[in-house]
Amino acid sequence: MLEVSNIDTFYGKVQALWGVSLRIDEAEIVALVGANGAGKTTLLSTISGLLCPASGSAKFLGKRIDGLTPHSIAELGISHVPEGRRLFPYMSVRENLEMGAYPYHAWKRKEETLELVYQVFPILKEREGQFARTLSGGEQQMLAMGRGLMSRPRLCMFDEPSSGLAPRLVLEVFQIIKSLREQGITVLLIEQNVRHTLEIADRAYVLENGRIVSEGKSSELLQNNHIKKAYLGL
Known about the structure:
Layout: E1 2-11, E2 14-24, E3 29-33, H1 40-47, E4 55-60, E5 63-64, H2 70-76, E6 78-81, H3 93-99, H4 104-107, H5 110-120, H6 122-126, H7 137-149, E7 155-159, H8 167-182, E8 186-190, H9 194-200, E9 203-208, E10 211-217, H10 218-221, H11 225-231
Parallel strand pairs: 3-8, 3-9, 6-7, 7-8
Antiparallel strand pairs: 1-2, 1-4, 4-5, 9-10
């Protein structure tokens, strides 16, 4: 579904990604693991078109997407839910969700998709008319995730969806992400909660200093001594 090959990405003159390659197959959950500053968010931003790679390529469903605008990539079926939620605070829950349905194919089925999102996040239906700023942290995260689903994506990329949430809500977020795969949505996931991430992911890539240093099945990486020591505290 997604194939990234030898991507180099810079911030000005500073190189952030070095020859990064990965692939994601349909209906997989693939995790990106790494310390803060390893390049995980940079990679998602490169895939979604917020950053343009200096070299390398990215293909989605067989089509080159590196160099396309972010809205063009979104229209092809890639949704990017960034870290920090980035909601419209003085717009209602429903209005925030509708902002995610701007691709033409999604807008035509907006009401249908809204009902699906409300099934996944029932609390958003209850809060439909409230300003986003009045929601709790957990509800705001659900709203950000729901908005990402409104474009009816084939691939959804989540950047730190459990950040700042209470432990009970963290588990709920992971269960929701797991359920998306069962609905046929492919997921690329960045999370600091490495144990929970590897427990729900099919495969994972480890990024260190802008380079992929390890990859494999999540079950195998959970047994990797370097992963245990660096990310699980064992």
